[in-house]
Amino acid sequence: MNIRFSTNLPVWIADNKRIISQLKDPQRVFKTAALNSLALISERIQVFGKLSNGSAIGGGQYNKQYAKKRAASGRQVRQIDYTFSGDLMQSFIAGPGPRFYALGFTDEGNHNKKEWLENMHGVAFELSEKEIDLAFKDIQNDVNRIIAQGK
Asked: What is the rounded CA–CA span in Å between residue 151 and residue 147?
């Protein structure tokens, strides 16, 4: 069967190869969403002490003995924020993966610490529903920007 094209799509594709290659490039399309997601998750954990589902980490309170240790070191004790030395959150990064930008930990020790904390308290280092919506908006904005730049 011979297909005869009656649209200008093949011409548009030929004229816009640069746009198409940029849209296929995960570094261009997902980078903003990943960086913003990293900031949102970090803020949710460190500032608000919340898990991905919106509940307070560990019921919201440090045990009295650990709260005293934190207070003596000048750390806040209002809510659990997964920050004492800062190593865990500093190793939580957004970076390029083989197919798209991703969030993860720079070393196995902090990845294991995250697993231990999440087994104890619940999931914290994944996007909440609201954060997913914001990430999709970032992706849409990047796609629209790439297309607009190509016109």
From this structure: 7
Output the pTM of the full model.
Answer: 0.81
Q: What is the pLDDT of residues 65-94, one digit of tens each?
A: 999 999 999 999 999 999 989 999 999 999
Q: Are 29 and 146 in contact (CB under 8 A)?
A: yes
Better-predicted residue by pLDDT, 52 or 136: 52
Please tell me whether residue 17 adopts helix, strand or coil conformation.
Answer: helix
What's 149's DSSP letter?
Answer: H
Q: Which residue, chain included where needed, has tokens 């898990």?
A: 51
Residue whose C-alpha is closest to residue 86's, from 55, 123, 58, 113: 113
Instruction: Give, in order, the Cα–Cα distances in Å from 111 to each of 54, 70, 92, 105, 117.
Output: 22, 22, 9, 6, 10
